[in-house]
Design goal:
By secondary structure, the chain is an alpha/beta fold. Among the domains are: 81 residues, Gyrase A, domain 2, CATH 3.30.1360.70; 122 residues, Isoleucyl-tRNA Synthetase, Domain 1 (Orthogonal Bundle), CATH 1.10.730. It is built from 21 helices and 14 strands. A five-stranded parallel beta sheet has the order 7-6-5-11-12, with helices on both faces. A four-stranded antiparallel beta sheet has the order 1-2-4-3. It has a three-stranded antiparallel beta sheet with strand order 8-9-10. It is globular, with a radius of gyration of 29 Å. The structure holds one RNA strand.
RNA sequence: GCGCCUGUAGCUCAACGGAUAGAGCGCAUGCCUGCGGAGCAUGAGGCAGCAGGUUCGACUCCUGCCAGGCGCACCA
């Protein structure tokens, strides 16, 4: 049950009846002020010039044509305000209580798409910036699945390039008791990993250098991936596939893709290297040619990425691929789009979400070393639910600052508990109701729901599908926690009425009234459960 | 120098070009033998970085400045 699409199409029809051939988008928005109802539209003002009539007159004419089941229409000045009808809200409560997939839709019409996220080099630990990408990507997938897309989660493992080699060389150096080579990896974890390699690959350091480096590179990448899997698993992030860069070369996908570019005339030979040289049309925003094979014959990351694009769009055939990248990679967006065009792939099918940096605010004593705080450490300090909630609260383009001291100290004031508590509370009410009235009727008479806070809660519940749709359409998961908070607020207000006056509680002497209010509790609880579920945050039955 | 992102309450951040810009934290004042107060109610706090422009209407779109972050490899 949804009001918005009904109102929207009726409004569009009404505008057409006024003789407007191409009606502007009805542009229904959630009314900000309850005085203005629940949804409002400003079409009348947009039509004023076209129809040569003052907006209030147009709004009034439209209102007269709109006799809708979900909502009443009223012209106020140039605005058209819609107020959800009590009868509709009551019916919605029943439907939202019963529907285990309330808010899900077929918006995506089965579109197959891939979301690739985190995909950091397996040469160092995950830090707090990666955590943000992990949660964003994960919730995006949950959201897209919920709205009728067929989503696959993928991690692209850079296990084959220059960096992998350097990592292998660094491990070898540590095994031999030396310092890592110039440009190598120096972290503590390299030493630990070298010790593990001594166990798992006995005598590797004695083998010829290229062979030892290759073996250690492979070993190191595999072990790092294991760690990633464990850390991401801790925060509820799982992948359908860990895709190996190496496999693009072993199966010949990358060379074939590059050959395809050559045949289309987008490669050039210069300064001993092979370059990707898009024509002006393909280049778009990309300004320079880029090396694919270096002078020494080794390939760059771009060479693999060309293969990866072909693999996903032309071989696996995803309709869209959504990439979640750190903002420090924004310069590659035009590059990848140029490659896509050169390969004959519509660049619109490649969607890149850039997430701004995560920094950590520490006391003034310590230098800001935000990016070096490991994700595991942050999980330890915040817990999974709070961590996910906090990450989701920010839109991707907003830089994010975490104050760990505050976040830790606030543990019990965290907004996530506010929502979880609302859920647990509703569960508890249900328990009390069943104990008090062992023989409650199976069906609720929802027409007994009349009080302002009851209808306010029902109204909030009715907005859930709108929220889901908008978040999915705009690829903006951060809308979820804001909705959850509003819903939880309505739940607490509804509950609290019973503290003022026992007659206003859910559990009252009258079984029919109890049953009706219980239905509202169930609708709210179901919606909270679904919303928290999409965020990957627990919806506990007791706390 | 060029490019991308961001400047909104004391702090951290929201709001498909619409009416009086909202939350959380912090602050102030009430409400605890309760269907679990991890809650509720009320309040203070804003010249939306600055200056122009487009529009009936701009926090939102455009231009120019200012400030911060991030990029500009034969690293990924």
């Amino acid at each position: 049950m949804r009001a918005l699409p009904v109102i929207s199409s009726a409004l569009e029809g009404a505008v057409r009846e006024l003789g407007v051939e191409q009606p502007p988008n009805p542009e229904l928005i959630r009314a900000r002020n309850p005085e203005y109802g629940d949804y409002s539209s400003s079409v009348a003002m947009k039509l004023a010039r076209l129809l040569r009539q003052p907006p209030p007159q147009i709004a009034a004419r439209l209102a007269r044509r709109l006799e809708l089941e979900p909502a009443s229409a009223e012209a106020v000045g140039g605005y058209l305000n819609f107020r959800l009808r009590t009868s509709w809200l009551q019916a919605l409560v029943r439907s939202a209580a019963a529907d285990e997939g309330y808010g899900s839709s077929e918006l995506g019409a089965g579109e197959r798409l891939q979301v690739e996220f985190v995909s950091t080099n397996p040469t160092g630990p995950l830090h707090i910036g990666h955590g943000r990408g992990a949660i964003l990507g994960d919730v995006l997938c949950r959201l897209l699945d919920f709205t009728g897309h067929r989503t696959e989660r993928e991690y692209y493992v850079n296990d084959y390039g220059t960096q992998a080699q350097k990592f292998g060389a660094s491990l070898l150096a540590r095994l031999r008791g030396e310092e890592p080579p110039e440009g190598g990896y120096t972290g503590e974890y390299v030493i630990e990993l070298a010790q593990a390699a001594r166990r798992d690959l006995p005598g590797v350091e004695a083998r010829p250098e290229p062979e030892a480096v290759a073996a250690l590179a492979e070993y190191g990448a595999a072990r790092m991936v294991e760690r990633f899997r464990a850390t991401l698993g801790r925060i509820g992030v799982r992948y359908d596939r860990w895709f190996s860069e190496r496999s693009l070369w072993e199966r010949g996908t990358a060379p074939a893709a590059i050959e395809r570019l050559r045949q289309r005339g987008y490669l050039k030979q210069a300064e001993g290297a092979v370059w990707f040289a898009p024509g002006e049309e393909e280049a778009g925003e990309e300004v320079e040619d880029r090396v694919i094979f270096r002078r020494d014959g080794s390939h760059t990351y771009l060479a693999s990425d060309i293969g990866y694009l072909v693999d996903r769009f032309l071989e696996r055939g995803y309709r869209r691929v959504i990439e979640v990248w750190g903002a420090d990679h924004h310069g590659y967006v035009p590059r990848m789009k140029a490659v896509a065009r050169a390969l004959g792939i519509d660049p619109e099918r490649l969607v890149v979400i850039l997430i701004q940096m995560v920094t950590l605010k520490e006391g003034r004593m310590s230098k800001r070393q935000g990016r070096f705080v490991s994700l595991d450490e942050l999980v330890d300090r915040l817990g999974v639910d709070a961590l996910r909630y906090f990450y989701l609260l920010r839109s991707p383009e907003a830089p994010m600052e975490i104050d760990p001291a505050l976040a830790t100290a606030q543990r019990f004031d965290n907004p996530v508990y506010y929502a979880q508590y609302a859920h647990a509370r509703l569960f508890n009410v249900e328990r009390t109701a069943v104990e008090t009235h062992p023989g409650l009727p199976a069906d609720a008479d929802v027409s007994l729901l009349q009080l302002p806070w009851e209808l306010a809660l029902a109204r909030e519940i009715s907005f859930w599908p709108d929220t889901v749709e908008q978040a999915a359409r705009l690829l903006e998961p951060h809308r979820l926690p804001y909705y959850v908070h509003q819903l939880a607020e309505a739940v607490h207000a509804f509950y609290n009425a019973g503290n003022e006056d026992p007659a206003l509680r859910v559990v009252v002497p009258d079984p029919a009234l109890t049953r009706a209010r219980l239905e509202l509790c169930r609708a709210a609880r179901n919606t909270l459960r679904l919303a928290l579920g999409l965020m990957g945050v627990a919806a506990p039955e007791r706390m």
